[in-house]
Amino acid sequence: MVADDALDRVLKLLASPPVRPEVSHGYLDLLGEEGTHDTLAQRLMRSSGLPRIYEQVWRPVLFGLAKGGPLGPSTDQEYALARAWLDLAATPGATVLDVACGPGNVTRALAEGVTDGGLVIGADASATMLSRAVADTPASAPGTAEVAYVRCDAADLPFADAAFDAVCCYGGLYLFADPWAALASMARVLRPGGRLVVLTTHRPGLPLLGPGLAAVSGATGIRMFGARELTEGLGAAGFSAVRRRSHGLMQLAGATRP
Ligand SMILES: C[S@@+](CC[C@H](N)C(=O)[O-])C[C@H]1O[C@@H](n2cnc3c(N)ncnc32)[C@H](O)[C@@H]1O
């Protein structure tokens, strides 16, 4: 549930706060009837079934396979890496944005690394994912960060410039109609010196895999990013100090807003 004081804090971070905020579903809805573009993957994200199995079954199985099985980082290691690359331990009371938060699994993991007085906002376009995020997120205990959720489009984040200390985007970039606009939007809402961490797909430089991956990508709407494509895209969006590592068909990147 978006607690009243957390909602007030979210409204203060918006570039243009609505006159009558729509919060009847437990998250701040800034999209209304608007949807994201229509691919097979996006339809699944908006379905009522996927949010129920996403965190416990879908993500561990599919991300696990894509990361190379036991050779890749575990889910907990992914989450720990996000907290470390975002430098949350050195940012007391941080204000953090989790873009494409889905059912809030990463949002809650980020909140574990944020100290009292901090705020972690999960942002997503899917109403069904956000309903699940609200249901699965306990009220913040004393001494922990507050968590709130906002329904919005990653390519046009509704927050004021430099509103956040850190931005995370795990498992979302490959679904967006315009991932480069989304990265530019994330750079805009980060304060100078603020950190970004991204987990997305990786197109390995193996020519034999190319046609198969292109076919899957075309059929599902899941974009595969080359290694240089991602680092160059981060640079073009205004980020510096880019670091990157790949694990099978997934890659992680960290960067700083100068
Ligand atoms: C696979 S889930 C990722 C959940 C979580 N971040 C994780 O790593 O497990 C991807 C999410 O991206 C969201 N999404 C897709 N396009 C979006 C957009 N344009 N703006 C905001 N969220 C979007 C979907 O609704 C979905 O909940």
Automatic annotation (TrEMBL):
Designated name of the protein: Similarity with UbiE/COQ5 methyltransferase
Keyword Cell membrane: no
Signal sequence segment: none
Record keyword Transferase present: yes
Keywords, alphabetical: Methyltransferase, Transferase
GO molecular function: S-adenosylmethionine-dependent methyltransferase activity
SUPFAM superfamilies: S-adenosyl-L-methionine-dependent methyltransferases
Protein source organism: Actinoallomurus iriomotensis
InterPro entries in the cross-refs: Methyltransf_11, SAM-dependent_MTases_sf
Residue ranges annotated for the Methyltransferase type domain, each copy included: 97-198
GO BP, sorted A to Z: methylation
Entry-linked Pfam families: Methyltransf_11
